Amino acid sequence: MCSLEKRGRVFVLTLTGDGEHRLSPDVIAAIRDALARVKCESAAAGGRGFALVTMAEGRFFSNGFDLAWARSGGSASTIRTRLDSMGSLLRQLVADLLSLPMPTIAAVTGHAAAAGFMLALSHDYVEMRGDRGFLYMSEIDIALPIPPYFMALMRSKITDPKVLRELVLEGKKIIAAEAMAKGIIDQAHGGAAETVKAAVRRAEELAEKNWIGEVYGSIRRGTLPEVRFAVGLPEETDEERQKLLSASKL
């Protein structure tokens, strides 16, 4: 499902195998477990100067929710329940990424569709291969409503309403060069290896800043208030702010 390795100050989380990396409950749980390990290990090492890269093996970054698993439930009510379950679990994963005490970079090494696109967009930076793969919101084509937190994430990260319209109302598939020109991703690269290399390089540069992770996470959440609310993260309390201030260099 996924693996986690540490390269110096950079954690690399990889969705493993040559499949579509569909986000089933088990896959989401495995990713969340890996992120919990990242948070624990970084805290044990001082809680500052780390970064995370998320990548995937094969031709897909992630092709979204495991719709085959949902349909295998048989009845319409069971299918809806399973879809709601995956949506709820992914919302928790997005909250985990928003709270992770370090910069995060998605290395999109293949197609990223629907929930898979949202997984990539939940990172601070997105590097994408340019020789193949696209970003795609398939919901309009398969007649599924888009969860509110998906919309909050896209509105926060994609500021041009015309681009958002293309994605969610037209179901347009957007390749890397166009995604970069439209401000959806940060950089397009030649192939998968170049994309991962660029993501790790960016992560190493950010880790070298030696920022305090909890402060970084707090500021990130502050830049995305709509997303924070949509995924159920509470506002920081005065006590939590005082704790962060105690780590200040002032």
UniProtKB/TrEMBL annotation:
A Pfam family matched in the record: ECH_1
Pathway field: Lipid metabolism; fatty acid beta-oxidation
UniProt superkingdom: Eukaryota
One annotated Gene Ontology cellular component of this protein: peroxisome
Catalysed reactions, semicolon-separated: a (3E)-enoyl-CoA = a 4-saturated (2E)-enoyl-CoA; a (3Z)-enoyl-CoA = a 4-saturated (2E)-enoyl-CoA
GO BP, sorted A to Z: fatty acid beta-oxidation
EC number(s) on file: 5.3.3.8
One Gene Ontology term of the molecular function aspect: delta(3)-delta(2)-enoyl-CoA isomerase activity
Keywords: Lipid metabolism
Membership in a protein family: Belongs to the enoyl-CoA hydratase/isomerase family.
PANTHER family: ENOYL-COA HYDRATASE-RELATED, ENOYL-COA HYDRATASE_ISOMERASE FAMILY PROTEIN
Name under which the protein is recorded: Delta(3)-Delta(2)-enoyl-CoA isomerase
Provenance organism: Platanthera zijinensis
